[in-house]
Amino acid sequence: MVLPGQYTGIFSMSNLVIMILRGLVGSCPNCGKAGIFKGLYALHKECPNCHTPFERMVGDFTGAAYVNVVATSAIVVLVSMVLVATTEIPLAVLLLAGIPIIVILATILHKPIKGVWVAILVYIDQMERENSA
Ligand SMILES: [Zn+2]
Question: How many domains does the chain have?
């Protein structure tokens, strides 16, 4: 049983992987329970189960947005390059079709990427607390 605010991890690469996997599916990186999101984009301030804080300061998630933009762009560019090289689809059609695809893909990738970002922040936060104790 995880007590509120209790640190449950041992700092190791396997623990980081577990925390990242939990974040990837939208679970608390610390206890693995409950959803970390309270809507499509909004994040709980802390875990409803173990009360691990998810957001420490404003701007914590700028990196997650950046990773989402890079991942979405890379996927769209790679798929577009393959389509241009292997099909007769006009470039204008690909560009027009790419705009809604970018929006949809970025929306789909938002939660997994932000969940992983939360996991990394929680891991770092716990490591800092452990080292300062
Ligand atoms: Zn939790």
Answer: 1
pTM listed for this prediction: 0.80
Which pLDDT value is given to residue 90? Answer: 87
Domain that holds residue 96: 13-132
Expressed in angstroms and rounded, the spacing between residue 23 Cα and the centre of ligand 1 is 11
Provide mean pLDDT across the span 61-70.
Answer: 91
Whether 7 maps to a domain, the answer reads no
3-state secondary structure 65-131: HHHHHHHHHHHHHHHHHHHHHHCCCCHHHHHHHHHHHHHHHHHHHHHHHHHHHHHHHHHHHHHHHHH
Q: How far is the CA of 63 from the centre of ligand 1 (A)?
A: 22
Domain-located, residue 86: yes
Distance 101 CA to ligand 1 centre (A): 33
pLDDT of residue 11: 59
